[in-house]
Design a protein that fits this description.
By secondary structure, the protein is an alpha+beta fold. The chain is about 25% helix and about 25% strand. The chain has two domains: about 45 residues, no CATH class; about 110 residues, Trna Endonuclease, Chain: A, domain 1. A hairpin with a 4-residue loop joins β6 and β7. It is elongated and about 80 Å long.
Amino acid sequence: MTFRVKAVEELPPGVQAPARRALEDWVGRPASVPVVIAKPIEQPKEKPRKYRNQPVVIDGERFDSKLESRRYLELMNLYALGQVLWFQRQPIFRLAPGIKYRADFMVAWSTGEVSIEDCKSSGTRTPVYVMKKKLMAERWPKIEIWEIESVPAGMPHATPLRGEP
């Protein structure tokens, strides 16, 4: 960490003598001459995320939220138990020309069912999402989107919550 000081005397007492010696060795002039030491560059504060989500990286994969990463871990556990045959992250569905819907997961269950899952909080259930969900229902009536509202932290074991009835 660096600080901006106008003179060595502005440094804490225990640091003044070593700083004088270092400056004389480095600059080749007496330490009584004012020297400006660089101030740390202030990084611009990151703008808060729109939905207050916190991105997470697991197994080298980036997830948009903690909820989505926990669901991924849960699906990995269910896959290891044989309840899930396979799952895909971020599948894209073309709803109409120029309109696409990207779900969080597409899961093939050992029962033969295939589910589309989206990790949602109350803030992420936007009018655009609701419209795309309705377009999905019209285009593919046999496919239902499961909205994953919560997955407990720790060892995940939650059952997906069905979307709107």
